[in-house]
Fold DUF2116 family Zn-ribbon domain-containing protein.
Amino acid sequence: MERLCLDCGEAVRGRTDKKFCDDSCRNNYNNRLKSENGIVFNRINLILKKNRTLLSKFNPDGKIKISKKKMVNAGFNFDYYTHTYQTQNGKRYIFCYEFGYLALNEEDFLLVKREEK
């Protein structure tokens, strides 16, 4: 059974577990895989970074009430966040790194900053 290089499709000679014809093809193949995955990660990281920047801009002192409309107009994306925190009384804070928010009602949010211990 003839094995073919995963990058260029040429016949592979040598060890039975060899997947590439040479180091150049191996590097090309792995770099292509990384760049395809990297595009998705970069897009998500840009959104998270923008959300964090907006939260820090709106909340320089640690706690403030803000309208949803103001956040949306600034370009905040509510679909992207890093983690959530559920309090014992059932309130759910949504965080983008160290900055977070709590929905007070349909139109207002409480912005908070997590304190480092």
Observations:
- The mean pLDDT is 92.
- The two ends are 61 Å apart (CA to CA).
- The CA atoms of residues 7 and 29 lie 5 Å apart.
